[in-house]
Amino acid sequence: MIDKRIAKRIISLCAEDKFKNNPAFYLYDLVSVKKQLGYLEKFLPKNVSVYYAMKANPHKEVLRFLSEHKRCNGIEIASKGELDKALKYFNAENICFTGPGKTIYELKASLDSSIELINLESLTEARRINEIAESKCKVVDVLIRVNSNYCVHGATSTNMAGLSTKFGIEEDDLIGSIKIIQKEMPFIKIKGFHVFGASGIMDSDVLIDYTNSVLDLVSNVEKEVNIKAEIIDLGGGFGIDYTKKNQIFDLESYSSHLKESIDKLGYNDRKIILELGRYIVGECGYYCSEILDIKESKGKKYIIMSGGVNHLNRPNVTGENQPIEIIPRDEEQFPNIMNISGEIVDVCGPLCFAEDKLGKKIFIKSAKIGDILVVTKAGAYGCTGSPLDFLSHPHPEEYYETITEDE
Ligand SMILES: Cc1ncc(COP(=O)(O)O)c(C=O)c1O
After folding, report:
1. Phi and psi based region of residue 251 (left: phi greater than 0; alpha: psi -120 to 50; beta: remaining)
2. Are residues 272 and 133 in the same domain?
3. Which atom of ligand 1 approaches the CA of 78 most closely?
């Protein structure tokens, strides 16, 4: 259920003139972001740094809020555009740049800004960085991103390692690659490793096993080559429940196991990074649009919305519905035309292809044309993960709900 405070704000935004011309928007609730950071603050070991993965939601007020919160220790970026945004709110020494295919322009800009870390994705990239660093007479701190042989099973979203992938250096090539970098690239300093197993993990035991596998990998590498991993970046991956089953990622259990593993290996002097996106902002977002039409075709009902996958592509990409709620509006715009009452429907957008759906086989208790349909848990990979320009519809507005003193 959408809480009263948010429902009130949605209704008031829908009453604004802007909504008549562009009946679709996102609302981000900073209270929810604060709550998630509060959990991280309460449970995570103190030597674990939380870096926000900007790709989840780069809205400026989200960035501003995170940059001012003590449990957000830095930011992970994936492009020059994200670098520019990050530098507005975060110190360069708390920025790390990850992602395959960084251009020379992006690498130069990262060096010029003196960001903390570049996560290195291949030997080619290492050579490129070394050359740029040499030209600037700088030594660059990097983490080597590893495509570990360990595969996470049970992620609700994408696997990022443990299979054939474009990310990182293969675990089997790691020792050889380190030796090449150490011998041939004096302007690169290897500060540690980055291994990101998978996104959207709900079962904390799964993530604990993966984390232990990463820590083992690091300790084995240290035994084979003369290196100390001062920094170990475990990537993101804490899931949120997109179903209505109210499951939660057991952060307390994950944190206590992580602490145990850190203690066991004597890694308390290491900097451990978690690059979290979805867990921090996923719950904060509400995508709201207007029901423009309700139709029946060959025995099946469709709700047609003012925005579709052009505004929220995630359900279509992952095949996973997000929770949907209806906020009724008073005016019966077309009282004699079709309504929905306790039915299963597909929720569609206005685009020219049949897969343009915000949700498939959704049970709707009651809805009519003119009501507001709200997709909740749309704060991560929502607006930013969608093809906003397709068919030249207007982009959704993005609003945020601030925190009052007693929250
Ligand atoms: C390099 C990197 N770090 C962090 C994240 C954030 O992951 P999540 O939102 O699952 O926490 C991603 C997501 O794709 C990523 O690619």
Report:
1. alpha
2. yes
3. 1
Count other C-beta atoms under 10 Å from residue 33's C-beta.
27
Q: By alpha-carbon position, which residue is closest to atom 5 of ligand 1?
A: 236
Shared domain for 167 and 304, answered yes or no, is no
Tokens of 19: 């909504």
Distance of CA 266 from the midpoint of ligand 1 (Å): 27
Q: How far is the CA of 203 from the centre of ligand 1 (A)?
A: 17
Bridge partner list, 327: 372
358-402 pLDDT, tens digit per residue, is: 999 999 999 999 999 999 999 999 999 999 999 999 999 999 998
Region for 298 from its dihedrals, namely left if φ exceeds 0, alpha if ψ lies in -120 to 50, beta otherwise: left
Q: Tell me if 67 is assigned to some domain.
A: no
Is residue 160 within 8 Å of 199, Cβ to Cβ?
Answer: yes
Do 336 and 256 fall within a single domain?
A: no
Tens-digit pLDDT profile for residues 161-216? 777 889 999 999 999 999 999 999 999 999 999 999 888 899 999 999 999 999 99
Please tell me the distance from the alpha carbon of residue 137 to that of residue 375, in angstroms, as a whole number.
51
In a domain, 152, yes or no: yes
Instruction: State yes or no: pLDDT of 155 exceeds 60.
Output: no
Q: Is the pLDDT of residue 273 over 80?
A: yes
Cross-strand bridge partners of residue 397: 25
Cβ contact 45:10 at 8 Å: no
Whether residue 245 sits in one domain with residue 111: yes
Q: Which domain holds residue 319?
A: 4-28+283-401
